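Customer escalation, tier 2.

The customer says the design service returned an amino acid string that "doesn't look like it belongs to this structure." They asked us to rerun it and document both sides in this ticket. The original structure tokens are below, unchanged.
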């Protein structure tokens, strides 16, 4: 009998709960190939969507074409985001070079250049499989595609351990979602994506795509671009948001990050992740966001390292953060972040189209913020002042500089970062706009359900009313820089992201 997690691979078929038909068209059995439209799960392993496409290709005995494209006109398009994705595309091209799949990378050079590509490929396809990602512009893009594609189009959920459509309920608190997971998640732990979806499948290999397609939409030399980002100057994107050389994108870099975390940081995660100098955080969020890393893979590797099996799960369904997984406290803390706190955002975004609007806040939070909207603010800053880290608070400025330079903020300081934007903005609605703009523009893990959870948590989502009631905050949880400085060690952090150091890095 296979040990866990290997036993979770025994059922090879993608669970039906993860497959969502987007139109009523039938499979075209005379089609030339099966098309996998890779738009969110940009990886060749641990990917239910790719696995579903392989299943179709195997059943129909058709070649498999993997289309991975990148628009140039998405909001906040920049050198930073383009580079991260392109590095992943180069990895995927290399990974599929000698496999039974035809990889087709396309980079849009001018807005609208890619229009019609999916339709042209779909006209020759038997079936189209796409990634089911619930945030940013991707749901709208899938909706448009569903109206234009004349063969069966499926969206497949490979976002997290808990399928997004396993429940219709939207959870207002992480506690309630955690309790629900304790009851319902074990069943889904029996069905993992195949580590290598192409392994064991002898698919016919497509030699080339029709010239009429490749001449109009030429394949991109992603390998060359991944090695020389100066070529990004040719794209109509924001060149002021720089590439982060220390944080490369792609499945290979994600794998190295995972290996390092398991070896040297997991055991320290529970006690040290709040310390900016300890480097105990996972660093997974950019890779999870762009689909270069699978939450299933992370979980499987943790389980393998700890020799964990579902038999260790507690039978108590009480929503507690501790004790349910049956592992050490540090791993319990990590799994709660990876699954509960990450996936509660996917629960919200997959069921509510207004997840990024102020009106989506809990009623108690909107009421309390409204009652204090006219409170006097000691400090008020514009978006530009926030962006350039020109506030009176050196801790906040350091966090903003880290965001601009590295595309991330230390987990604890990101909470403070948001709370101070609320405090120093003329209205809570303006604070929300500032947080979304700065986070989505600079953060490599921005534009993600989990990222929106963090932003909206600042304003009361997934939280409760707190006392005493305070000016500006009302009943919203309060945080201060003084308390933060007392709680965590910041000397090295403040030095690393000081104005002097930032000037040396050419912040702007």
């Amino acid at each position: 009998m296979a040990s866990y997690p290997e036993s979770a691979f025994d059922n090879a078929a993608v669970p039906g709960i993860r497959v969502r038909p987007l139109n009523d068209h039938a499979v075209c059995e005379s089609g030339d190939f099966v098309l996998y439209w890779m738009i969110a799960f940009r990886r060749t392993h641990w990917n239910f969507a790719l696995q579903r496409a392989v299943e179709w290709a195997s059943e129909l005995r058709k070649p498999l074409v993997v289309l991975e494209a990148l628009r140039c006109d998405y909001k906040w398009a920049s050198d930073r985001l383009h580079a991260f994705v392109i590095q992943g595309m180069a990895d995927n091209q290399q990974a599929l070079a000698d496999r039974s799949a035809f990889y087709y990378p396309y980079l849009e050079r001018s807005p609208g250049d890619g229009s019609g590509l999916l339709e042209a490929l779909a006209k020759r396809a038997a079936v189209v499989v796409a990634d089911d990602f619930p945030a940013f512009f991707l749901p709208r893009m899938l909706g448009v595609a569903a109206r234009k594609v004349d063969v069966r189009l499926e969206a497949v959920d490979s976002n997290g351990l808990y399928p997004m459509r396993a429940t219709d309920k939207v959870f207002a608190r992480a506690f309630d979602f955690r309790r629900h997971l304790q009851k319902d998640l074990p069943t889904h732990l029996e069905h993992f994506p195949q580590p290598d979806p192409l392994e064991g499948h002898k698919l016919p290999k497509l030699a080339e795509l029709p010239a009429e397609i490749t001449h109009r939409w030429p394949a991109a030399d992603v390998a060359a671009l991944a090695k020389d980002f100066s070529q990004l100057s040719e794209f109509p994107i924001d060149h002021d948001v720089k590439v982060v050389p220390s944080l490369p994108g792609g499945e290979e870099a994600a794998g190295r990050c995972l290996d390092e975390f398991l070896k040297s940081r997991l055991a320290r995660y529970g006690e040290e992740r709040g310390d900016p100098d300890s480097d105990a955080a996972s660093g997974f969020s950019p890779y999870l966001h762009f689909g270069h890393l699978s939450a299933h893979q992370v979980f499987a590797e943790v389980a393998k390292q700890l020799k964990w099996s579902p038999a260790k799960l507690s039978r108590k369904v009480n929503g507690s953060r501790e004790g349910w997984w049956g592992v050490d406290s540090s791993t319990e803390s990590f799994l709660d972040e990876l699954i509960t706190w990450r996936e509660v955002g996917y629960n919200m975004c997959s069921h509510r189209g207004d997840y990024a609007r102020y009106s989506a806040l809990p009623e108690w939070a909107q009421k309390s913020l409204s009652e204090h909207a006219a409170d006097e603010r000691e400090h008020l800053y514009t978006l530009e002042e926030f962006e350039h880290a020109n506030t009176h608070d050196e801790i906040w400025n350091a966090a903003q500089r880290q965001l601009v330079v590295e595309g991330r903020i230390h987990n604890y300081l990101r909470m403070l970062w948001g709370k101070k934007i609320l405090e120093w903005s003329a209205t809570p609605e303006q604070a929300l706009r500032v947080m979304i703009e700065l986070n989505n523009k600079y953060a490599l893990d921005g534009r993600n359900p989990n990222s929106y959870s963090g932003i909206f948590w600042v304003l009361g989502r997934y939280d409760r009313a707190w006392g005493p009631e305070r000016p500006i905050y009302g009943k919203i949880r309060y945080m201060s820089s003084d308390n933060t400085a007392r709680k965590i060690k910041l000397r090295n952090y403040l030095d690393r992201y000081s104005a002097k150091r930032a000037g040396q890095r050419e912040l702007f």
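Tier 2 assessment: The sequence is consistent with the input. Residues 76 and 501 are 26 Å apart (CA to CA). Residues 329-351 form the longest helix (23 residues). Sent an explanation to the customer and offered a walkthrough call.
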